[in-house]
Amino acid sequence: MLNNEHGKHHFNKHAFLPVAFCLVGAILFIIVSALLYWPAPEIAFRTDDSPVAWLSSAQLWAMAILCLRLWQDKALPRYLCIWLCIAMMGMSFDEQFMLHEHWKYHCLEWLSLCSHTWVTELPMLLVAIFGSVTGLLLHRNLNQSYQRSLLWGAISIGLFALYLRFLQKPIDLLPYKAAFLVIAEALFTGLLLSLPRKNNGHVHSP
What we know:
The structure is a single chain. The protein is mainly alpha-helical. The protein is built from ten helices and two strands, in the order ααααααααααββ. A two-stranded antiparallel sheet has the order 1-2.
């Protein structure tokens, strides 16, 4: 049971394993994908049917289902679990079916406003805005410092991937922005897996 201040500020060794497995697994997947497409490793990241794009969609879907489990375990407030589940499912659909790409390249056929870059990139801007707000809400509901560090680490890496997308620089990293998204998702998945179950006011370590 974690019921003292000492426990709030020290890394839970039991929570380390899911984070490590998620992160190491994602990195190994990225490395293997790049090696299999060598000498043109960027193909493993840039094409819409690339293995790294598939992993991103799979991780997002897994997080959506995991949020339902966290709701049952009362590890997070119900509204946050429902919102996270819907958001992750939506982003998984987007990743798999290229919904924001369809918007970006075809919305000018529907709206004259799409002549402005901020309109064509609106889906990704909304992801950044709602993701940051969700991060603040999660921050308030995470009791341990390592959980908050994982949260903001994942958000920072995800925002960096969006920075690459919008500003198209540094040019050397641009082909690999999907890898940053996958690493951010892996960190966030590990965080969700490490959250303790709460029953009858008690907290149980994972």
